[in-house]
Write a structure and sequence with these properties.
Helices cover 27% and strands 31% of the residues. The chain is an alpha+beta fold and 95 residues long. The chain has a domain of 61 residues. It is extended and about 40 Å long.
């Protein structure tokens, strides 16, 4: 499996300022999810495959940055999208 690092500025949130009133809006909508019915929860093989892919990605990111990382991301279908990564606090860099 190969990975590539891509830098991008993405902002799904917008700050609307009008006069003395400001509000934060988002294109996202609220949706309640019953996790007991989600495919990830009900299929052990899927969880195992995803766990293995996440471990590979984690190892790649740690090697690239030279330190353990606190990573946030999104899973969309078979695609894993990393949103941000920063050095994990309190853990010394690897050598």
């Amino acid at each position: 499996m190969s990975f590539r690092l891509v830098a991008a500025d993405v902002s799904p949130l917008h700050l609307n300022v009008r006069g003395s009133e400001s509000r934060l809006t988002s294109a996202a909508t609220e949706q309640r999810i019953d996790y007991s019915q989600v495919t990830f929860t009900t299929q052990a093989e899927l969880r195992a495959r995803l766990g293995a892919r996440l471990a590979e990605i984690s190892n790649f990111i740690e090697r690239e940055f030279g330190a353990p990382q606190d990573v946030e991301g999104v899973i969309r279908g078979d695609e894993i999208i990393l949103v941000q990564s920063r050095a994990q606090q309190g853990i010394p860099p690897t050598t």
